[in-house]
Amino acid sequence: MAREHMTNIFKMTLDHDLKCWNRNKIRESFFIDHRLDELFTIDNDYKMTPAVVVLYNFSDQQIAGCYNSVVFDLSCGIVVTTQTTKHIVNEYVRQNILSFTQSKQMHQQLNIKRYHVLSYGNYSYFSLNGYSKKIVDWVALHQMNDFSFIHNQSSFSSKSGIVFHFEQDFSYVKSHLGKSIAVNYLSCLVTERFVSEMGFSIKHKMGDESNLGLDWDYGQADIISSVDSTLTQDFIDNIVEEELIFMKRLLESEYDIKCTLSDMKVFRTRVNKRKYKWD
């Protein structure tokens, strides 16, 4: 029998306690609470997609002595895997359209010291403790509509009605979440500017305007106000061929805009001519 869509399963259940999760509850429930039998699967070859909602890290104290991560995924259900969250995210980045270099460049452009977000514009992934070296928990901001302090925990409320709690300090997470949304703001502006230079326009996907990753009011206002057209163009000017390939994949996979690498190189030439223009 095909697995039901995870959101439908949670909406159908009368057990409201299944709509709130944290690390302790996961640890106490898996392989014990039989209400979860139809909700979760073991998949040691799990591949992350934008359908991911959160990734909980258990590598410091494995579940059942071998499972390093628990993933809530709108397509796959609740996935238990031996893979670490770091491995899952690294494979997603390596095989898809975002480079860590691109993400770090955006942080540096905004003078943000710690790297907490991988930003695609339409999709954004937030790490609770920063992702440079540690194995951490991850939250898909495009799946969330609110962040608040609930039961003395940092809590994200998903668009599907499920609440995910984390033990990390609320003020710390809130500060870095605001900065991360500002990074996502720059990512959106860069993409829109890049596309407009090539004669296209972007239509964001249905429902995106309601997600936390695009909630500019929640972003750190001083950083967002500093993202002007000059900063956006300066960032584009620094894109090298590797980033041009990245942008080509972004346009094709996220916005269904078809272009060749030759088109991208022509665009780069146009940018360089402007860069060295005296007036």
Describe what this molecule looks like in 3D.
The protein is an alpha+beta fold and 279 residues long. It has nine helices and eleven strands. It has helices at residues 6-12, 23-29, 85-95, 100-109, 170-197, 221-226, 229-237, 241-255, 261-275, and strands spanning 20-21, 40-42, 52-57, 69-73, 77-81, 117-119, 124-127, 138-140, 144-150, 153-158, 163-166. The strands form two sheets. A seven-stranded mixed sheet has the order 2-5-4-3-8-7-6, covered by helices on one side. Strands 1-11-10-9 form a four-stranded mixed sheet. Strand 10 (153-158) and strand 11 (163-166) form a beta hairpin. The longest helix has 28 residues, at 170-197. The termini are far apart.
Shape: globular
Average pLDDT: 81
Strand content: 15-25%
Low-confidence stretches: 274-279
Total beta-strand segments = 11
Q: Supply the number of helical segments.
A: 9
Distance between the termini: 67 Å
Percent range for helical residues?
Answer: 25-40%
Please trace the helix and strand order, writing H or E for each element: HEHEEEEHHEEEEEEHHHHH
The major beta sheet can be summarized as: 7 strands, mixed
* Backbone CA Rg: 20 Å
Order of strands, widest sheet? 2-5-4-3-8-7-6
Q: What structural class is derived from the secondary structure elements? A: alpha+beta
